Fold this protein.
Amino acid sequence: MRIVAACRIGLLSIAGDYLRLSRGPSKVSFWDYTRLRLFDREFWAGEDRRNVVGQSRSLQIWTTINYRVDWWGCFDSKLASTAYLSAFGFPVIPVRAIYCENATAGRADRVLTDGQALRGYLQHADHYPLFGKPAEGNQSLGPLTLRRHRPDADGVETFDGRVITFDELTGELSRHYTEGYVFQPLMVPHDTIRAVCGDRLATIRVLPLRTARETPQVLRACWKIPAGGNMADNLWHDGNLVAKLDLETGAVECVLSGSGVDLASQTHHPDTGANLIGFRLPCWDAVPATAQEAARVIEQAPLIGWGIAGLDDGPVIVEMNERPDFILPQLADSRGMLDAQLLDFMAVRKEKAAARRAEL
């Protein structure tokens, strides 16, 4: 009924439209149909909606192109991927400490194996500000931004003003992150980005496609903009934004918030009031170049979603994902992923996968 009210179309029309798309090459579920606003022909004007992929088709694309699933564990682990990229000289956010009860105590000063060690590390004022995240995880689940040690509360204070005692923190990490929890320095965005959206990192999602030995081509790029009380920039956090970018200049062309029926165009940042349309990301030339160069050293997965943040010193790689989210770039560009270029490359990768299976 919300779709009917938003687009003034009948229930039978919605049902018929969904059934046609669900049986097409994109294989969308009704959840995909609603959150991607596929019911809104005006939003997708001039584009073939059959090229818009949902979760099921995305999985098929990932596993076809990045068929070397034996490498996925390396990419999923924040420790492994950071070490791998650092070994090749790429700018990454360093790891300052690891909380992991399964590790051997005394192996390294920065390995914290129990609550006492965690307390001792977080009591040092010179360790702050800190950013914490699961060693394995996605979708910005479980992050912490720590401002300082709070001796009066026997704990720590987050940037949103919460106070967490050491006992509470140790209990949470022990229950939910047995594979490890990583602490890194809290990075500050480029001055021009800070003026627009505050102190939080607003990462650029870059999707290069590596074909043979040629320079990887940038398929898509969009800017994830945090807003409200969110420290993470994922669009599924209420209030966050995503921007379409000019791939030549890095200029913002349009901005969206929400998804599905709640998808809305924006022109200004809701917190700072800064105009977003036309804003040019600093050091733009180096951002796609960094993603392209990194893609060259990962032959095993030619389709990686790179999260890159712009700092005063230049771009830094925040994360890499061998199962890149297609929802963001499709919404930002109002254009589906399933074009001829991607289909042709999937066919090539199928042949390579078959050859590898035969060799093994």
Remarks:
- The mean pLDDT is 91.
- The chain is about 30% helix and 20% strand.
- The first strand starts at residue 97 and ends at 99.
- The two ends are 54 Å apart (CA to CA).
